[in-house]
Amino acid sequence: MPEDPTLIGHVIDVSGDLFLVDLLNCEEGSCPAVTIGDEDVVVGRLGSYVKIKQGSLSVIGMVSRMKEREQVLASTSQASSNEIREPLAIRTLEIVPVGTLTQNGDFERGVSSYPTTGATVHALGRSDVSSMFKKFEHTRFDVGALSTNGETRAYLDPSHYSAGIVQSSGRQDLENPGPSPRSCSAPSKS
After folding, report:
1. Domain presence at residue 149
2. For the whole model, what pTM was predicted?
3. Alpha carbon distance 19, 65 (integer Å)
4. Looking at the 3D structure of the chain, how many domains does it have?
5. What range does the domain containing 29 cover?
6. Per-residue confidence of the chain (190 residues) as pLDDT tens digits?
7. Rounded to whole angstroms, how far apart are CA atoms 145 and 66?
């Protein structure tokens, strides 16, 4: 068991829009889980959030995929070459970076500095995730509960989305209306 109970793995691959994380090995047949306070957090659940730490950098990411592969470890003993070795399940998460935590713990959307391979990955509990969305609660733009925890409400700042909302609302640009649906003709059959 690691010294930090929230430690769940290490970054093995980094790109601009995706991190690959190998989880720490757990006992055979057990579902990886950690306890944060009085909460049991299932590791690798799609839609759950994790924190990637390296030095003073803290990136928040969301689990988008979990996969498992088998690896047979090399023998460490002087046993015969006919020794049967059990394969080890290596679980890998695909993490989409969504933001960073500032030095005082405030969540900011977007990532400008990226971790490198070897960075530690930590599970986040309900209170950590709630505090990330709490910042937007004053907007009263409640988009619903998180799929990983029905008690945690997700809030967004609609000022970042106003242009998209107006465009998708069906309102036409009065100065440059473009073709109306009625003026479009179907292709003729030749």
Report:
1. no
2. 0.66
3. 11
4. 1
5. 7-72+86-124
6. 457 888 999 999 999 999 999 998 765 444 577 777 777 777 888 989 999 999 999 999 999 999 988 877 666 666 556 666 777 788 899 999 999 988 888 888 899 999 999 999 998 887 777 777 666 666 556 666 555 555 655 656 666 555 444 444 445 555 555 554 444 444 445 4
7. 22
